[in-house]
Design brief:
two-stranded antiparallel ribbon; four-stranded antiparallel sheet; Hypothetical Protein Tm1070, Chain: A; 103 residues; mainly beta; disordered C terminus; 6 strands
C-alpha cells in the first residue's frame, strides 16, 4: 500500500483519480487536511473519482492497484503512462475561460 500526498495548487478546485489502465485501483482512504473523506473505494479502467478541494489543502490518498492480467512478452508496446495521462488531461480538463475576446 502507498500513501500519495498532494498539495492542492492555487489554480485547482478538485483532485481527480483516474484508472487509465487495465487495473483495479483500491483506495483505502482519502483525507483532506487530516479529515477522512472516503474509505474503501475501487475503480477500474475508465473510471474516475473526483474530490473537491481548496488551494493549499493537503490531500492524502492511501491505496494500491492490482493489474487485471500479467503483461505478455509478445504484446506490442502499450502506450506509456505519460501518453495515457497526457491524453486523459487533453480529453478531460476544460480550458479556462479567457477574458480576452478576439474581434
Amino acid at each position: 500500500m502507498s500513501d500519495y500526498r498532494v498539495l492542492v495548487l492555487e489554480s485547482a478546485s478538485c483532485l481527480i483519480i483516474a484508472e487509465l489502465e487495465d487495473e483495479q485501483t483500491h483506495i483505502v482512504e482519502v483525507t483532506i487536511d487530516d479529515l477522512s473523506i472516503v474509505r474503501s473505494l475501487k475503480i477500474t479502467e475508465g473510471e474516475t473519482f473526483e474530490v473537491s478541494a481548496s488551494p493549499g489543502q493537503e490531500v492524502v490518498v492511501k491505496g494500491y492497484y492490482i493489474p487485471n492480467r500479467a503483461p505478455r512478452r509478445d504484446q506490442q508496446r502499450p502506450r506509456s503512462k505519460n501518453e495515457l495521462i497526457a491524453q486523459f488531461i487533453k480529453d478531460t480538463i476544460r480550458p479556462r475561460k479567457s477574458h480576452y475576446n478576439r474581434p
